[in-house]
Amino acid sequence: MGHLRALLSVFSLLVVAFIAFADTPNQATPYWAFCVNPVTTYPVKPDNQLRHVPNSTRTFTTAETQDLFNPPDWHPSDHPPMPDIVAHGRKPDVFACGYCHLPNGQGRPENSSLAGLPADYIIHQMSDFRSGARKSSEPRHLPVANMISRETKATGQETATAAEYFSKLERKPWIRIVETNTIPKTHVAGRMLVADTPGATEPIGQRIIEMPEDLERTELRDDTSGFVAYVPEGSLKRGKWLVTTGGDRKMSPCAKCHGQDLRGSGNDPPIAGRSPSYIVRQLFDMKSGARSGALSLQMRRQVAKLSLDDMIAVAAFVSSLKP
């Protein structure tokens, strides 16, 4: 009897070890998706020179564009009036939602595009941040760390107000997808990839290199200046195969949940035209278990068999579609 108990104990330990192994990503987080700032390169020291961007009559200093509680709104006529929690946050705890996600909700590669997401979905994700069910596979990834440490201090009413605002915004084309074998050399600054100076090129390898179309306008938080994402040649074809057929049962076709045009269905979010860096990051987080909320469990089963190369292909194809 004691021998049987010992065997059962060993078996239990093996099961626990297997689960722990399964929950551990089989490779390090890709730096190009989970951009971590070198502290020596950012932020740029602000100055008091008035700045301008195209098609706007407004002016802001660099310092004003970096105000986490009063982000610049270059194009106020392009969106409805922002609620106070979106435009200003709540000092000293909650940053303005419009700082990271931009007044029009389009967002940047380091965070999420909220425009057009179902309000209930946004509220649910905030609940997951609060409960610990949504984290990052890279603990140093500041945008997620800020969501957990600061934005979860928003009240239920503030969260609902912000979610309703962003859900009503129109999703617009924001990222240009380019298949290529050769890319500009880049480095991480401002929690995103930017081109080296002086410019040089290198092979893309198995990466997605997403960067601003116009770095100056992006750094000024101009919400009409988008991004370009370079993806490996062949990604779009392979991605289409995976997304539409499931890729020999690696996953279910994405349209099953996200709608035939991948523009969302019910509380399942739209994924067409979203940042490919963001998509890879979320797929990686779901596979690693960093995202473990109820809405992520079904996705975790879908990504269990995906390699990083598969995730790159899926993200490239999905991001190339019209929002």
Would you give an account of this structure?
This protein has 323 residues and is α+β, with helices and mostly antiparallel strands. The chain has two domains: 50-167, Cytochrome c-like domain (Cytochrome Bc1 Complex, Chain D, domain 2, Orthogonal Bundle), CATH 1.10.760; 172-320, Cytochrome Bc1 Complex, Chain D, domain 2 (Orthogonal Bundle), CATH 1.10.760.10. It is 38% helix and 10% strand. It has 13 helices and nine strands. The protein has helices spanning 2-22, 62-65, 84-87, 97-101, 119-131, 142-149, 156-167, 215-219, 235-245, 255-258, 276-288, 294-303, 308-320; strands at residues 50-51, 60-61, 175-179, 182-184, 186-189, 192-195, 201-203, 209-212, 227-231. The protein has a three-stranded mixed β-sheet with strand order 3-9-8, with helices on one face. Helix 5 (119-131) crosses helix 7 (156-167) and helix 11 packs across helix 12 (294-303). It is globular, with a radius of gyration of 21 Å. The protein starts with a helix and ends with a helix.
Map the helices and strands.
Blueprint: H1 2-22, E1 50-51, E2 60-61, H2 62-65, H3 84-87, H4 97-101, H5 119-131, H6 142-149, H7 156-167, E3 175-179, E4 182-184, E5 186-189, E6 192-195, E7 201-203, E8 209-212, H8 215-219, E9 227-231, H9 235-245, H10 255-258, H11 276-288, H12 294-303, H13 308-320
Parallel strand pairs: 3-9
Antiparallel strand pairs: 1-2, 4-7, 5-6, 8-9
Helix pairs in contact: 5-7, 9-13, 11-12, 11-13
